[in-house]
Amino acid sequence: MTDSYAEAGVDTAAGDRAVELMKAAVAATHGSEVLGGVGGFAGLFDVSALTAYRRPLLATSTDGVGTKVAIAQALDKHDTIGQDLVAMVVDDIVVVGARPLFMTDYIACGKVVPERIASIVGGIARACAETGTALVGGETAEHPGLVDPDDYDVAGAAVGVVEADAVLGPERVQHGDVVVAIASSGLHSNGFSLVRKILADRGVGYADRSDELGGVAGEVLLEPTRLYTTPLLGVIDEVGGAVHALSHVTGGGIAANLARVLPRGSWVELDRSTWAPQPVFRVLAEWGGLALEDTEGTWNLGVGMLAIVAQDAASAVTHRLTSAGLPAWVAGRVETTARDLGGFVAGAKGVEGGAVRLVGAYRG
């Protein structure tokens, strides 16, 4: 008997092989709260522990990795893109002070190559384990004729929990609070449409070695997004209510994302001289004929997360984060005094928040 579905381009047997290859990595993220294992129609997560909360709030986030996947596909290197996905989703959840519980993923591809799918999911699983997130389910969808055979896209969603009276955000931010910048690992997962255009215009291939970038271009660009969740939750537990707000520096850049978590009427000037962007930003900007300042609304320029903390806790927070492998430093201060806010970025993505601008010059 012929398999008409296979003749149409969908290989269900390959999908089954992919599941077998990824099962161990996924199962490694499961604690006793996960019921049913891998392969069910729905993932099950026991939330009995939430009865210990006075008023538990569920936090959820969904995202993808964007065009960074094009570089992974070009190099046929798929083991890091999963960490990018987890970081984009789970590090958004910690912004409100929530502890992640579980995550699901979705991979759309033109053709299921079991080893490729397992490599992607293996990266997701490793990052989930590092952030204390159970990977409870997912879907790999084969779309022949719609997606090219070697192309794919990844997306995911996660759920976390936070006590209602512990939610972080603009309501907690006060005049005099200190803004702590936390280092990124590089480009993370935003602004890759600009990155890819710069390389194309420069005539640099992803497999080309670049002395300026310090290695094979694509491998440098695939440096995975830093995971902030576990160290930040540790800081929140350690210094209690001294952490007032967090901002994940993703699409839109530094100023816009910080403005989203500031109260209306407040403003911050972030001092560029407090940090030096990594070489990858300088090289790409130079190749594109841009000043670093021109890219501040696109790339993170070395700052992946920002914490707004009480002034007397700033030293403890920076020390705790740096000790956990996340270099952190004071980059600004929250002000509420009246002033002309011309040149500031005010709010973003529909949020009428505070105002932010970057001042000074980056360290060399």
From TrEMBL:
Gene3D superfamilies: PurM-like C-terminal domain, PurM-like, N-terminal domain
Pfam families: AIRS, AIRS_C
CDD domains: PurM (cd02196)
Protein's pathway: Purine metabolism; IMP biosynthesis via de novo pathway; 5-amino-1-(5-phospho-D-ribosyl)imidazole from N(2)-formyl-N(1)-(5-phospho-D-ribosyl)glycinamide: step 2/2
Keyword Transcription: no
Domain PurM-like C-terminal: 175-337
Highest taxon of the lineage: Bacteria
Location(s) in or outside the cell: Cytoplasm
Keyword ATP-binding annotated: yes
Chief location: cytoplasm
Reactions the enzyme catalyzes: 2-formamido-N(1)-(5-O-phospho-beta-D-ribosyl)acetamidine + ATP = 5-amino-1-(5-phospho-beta-D-ribosyl)imidazole + ADP + phosphate + H(+)
Documented EC number(s): 6.3.3.1
Keywords from the named record: ATP-binding, Cytoplasm, Ligase, Nucleotide-binding, Purine biosynthesis
UniProt domain PurM-like N-terminal: residue ranges: 58-162
Enzyme class label: ligase
UniProt family annotation: Belongs to the AIR synthase family.
Protein name: Phosphoribosylformylglycinamidine cyclo-ligase
Organism in which the protein naturally occurs: Pseudolysinimonas kribbensis
Lineage: Bacteria, Bacillati, Actinomycetota, Actinomycetes, Micrococcales
